[in-house]
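Components:
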Amino acid sequence: DSGVTQTPKHLITATGQRVTLRCSPRSGDLSVYWYQQSLDQGLQFLIHYYNGEERAKGNILERFSAQQFPDLHSELNLSSLELGDSALYFCASSDGEQFFGPGTRLTVL
Amino acid sequence: DAKTTQPTSMDCAEGRAANLPCNHSTISGNEYVYWYRQIHSQGPQYIIHGLKNNETNEMASLIITEDRKSSTLILPHATLRDTAVYYCIGRGSTLGRLYFGRGTQLTVWP
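Structure:
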């Protein structure tokens, strides 16, 4: 158990919909990273927050956004969903090494 | 961050040492070599990291060549539960993202 929690574990939705994925970091970790893993692209970095502020962006689509709240949990919002957004979404928290949550499996039908 | 090259797949008998190679010929002097693994769609798991000295922890050993252009992750007594994709990552900043390549699929057989 990494100490990082993600909800929900599975999410099935339709194209055009909007979903929110939630991540709670390990106690004391200020950094939260989001990654997407699809079959054809592998693990791709999306975005990094540190203590509530955005620190870095990867190949995150404009339809996707994230935020980190004062209690340090983070949410990844995915809107206007497309079939190609079906993937595993991981968050990681860090005090140096990154510790990953169990992921949210998103299926867009 | 340095580009790394790993074999696509390897296998190993249970109880034997698994030696996973990684080439990182473009690594810069201040970049660490990190190893993570991912067991079948679970979240990636941190294994070990090093700069230029060999490192050992309860999971594995990391051997980095003197010129730092390559390294080897050693699982001394592989078990079936070590079957996973292993990622070698060059990382310049402890706050930076991780660049995952395709990694090495290690299969441990009984």
